Amino acid sequence: MPYLIAVGVVVFFIVLLITFWYITVPLVIIALLVWLTPKLVRRIRKRRYFASATFAAHKAEIAALTAEHNEIAQYVAEIRERGSFEIGAAGTGRHAHLATFENTSAHNYKRDRNVASYAAENVHNCSLQVVRNAAGNPIKYVSKYFDIKANEETLADVEALGKSIASLESAVSNLQTRESQIVGMVNPPAFIMKYYAAEFMEQVGVELSPVVVPYPEYRFEYVSAGGNSSQRATVKMDTETIDAMVEYLAGSIKFRKSAAGQRALMTAKLRHFIRSRDEWTCLNCAASVRVEPNLLLEVDHIRPVSRGGLTQVENLQTLCWRCNRAKSNKIVAA
Ligand SMILES: [Zn+2]
Predict the structure, then answer these.
(1) SS3 readout for the chain
(2) How remote is the CA of residue 319 from the centroid of ligand 1, in Å?
(3) CA 321 to centroid of ligand 1, rounded, Å
């Protein structure tokens, strides 16, 4: 019955529109014009701006800045490719992809939304109690249930993850600083940045790179037997969490004699210490933030971890991204 009423109302209005076409048609045309004209005017103004001599002059002025931005964008892609962004694995889901799960009951289709995600990566399906405990004590529970063992090898892996995440984070934020600097120097009319920000970057010659940092996430999930309720705790492995994990693992490792006492933990704190010890200057080419305020500085293992180098204050140095990139390209090629 409600359907019939709705259809009746729609038909009535269509008949009304057709009967009084000499009013409705001009109204529609006016509405279209009001809607379209500002857009057209904006497009014309935009084209004029990008074709203007002022814009061309600004673009030429910042060419070196743009080129360096694009090189760092390339470097970001390399970090993404070579870095390590995973660690550990969920015990329960490891072989779940070998089975298919179906809910074959006819009437409770709604419950599917709460089906435990066994096939997903880094998900641990567990009791409600474990979900709650994990939310309260994430570091301990992630290492316990995702098999992140307290040994030197795993510690090195977690530190490598932290290094990748941190260098990607600082490279991405460096790019963003440079992008806003570029916008500031060209100083386009407000409507350009409001409506055509992406096209502006393209016209200036800036290659945009994805700004998302692929933080690994660990999930503890409880789904009731009937599927009617579910709760989850999610742990995002950002720099802060990784540092806490590094400290937690180090606290329960029995180090070999050679490494004990002289090993430092690769955390944000240590990276900051090394940079300030080296006075925010690249130890290879002497580039410094005093001359280049936006210089991207990284902390490097002088003897690489892959060749037995340890995380020790004496084995760490500050390098600018250019020198660090050249060094890691050499190591990858060797
Ligand atoms: Zn350098």
Answers:
(1) CHHHHHHHHHHHHHHHHHHCHHHHHHHHHHHHHHHHHHHHHHHHHHHHHHHCHHHHHHHHHCHHHHHHHHHHHHHHHHHHHHCCCCCCCCCCCCCHHHCCCCCCCCCCHHHHHHCCCCCCCCEEECCHHHHHHHHHCHHHHHHHHCCCCCCHHHHHHHHHHHHHHHHHHHHHHHHHHHHHHHHHHHCCCHHHHHHCHHHHHHHHCCCCCCCCCCCCEEEEEEECCCCCCEEEEEEECCHHHHHHHHHHHHHHCCCCCCCCCCCCCCCHHHHHHHHHHCCCECCCCCCECCCCCCCCEEEEECCCHHHCCCCCHHHEEEEEHHHHHHHHHHHHHC
(2) 5
(3) 7
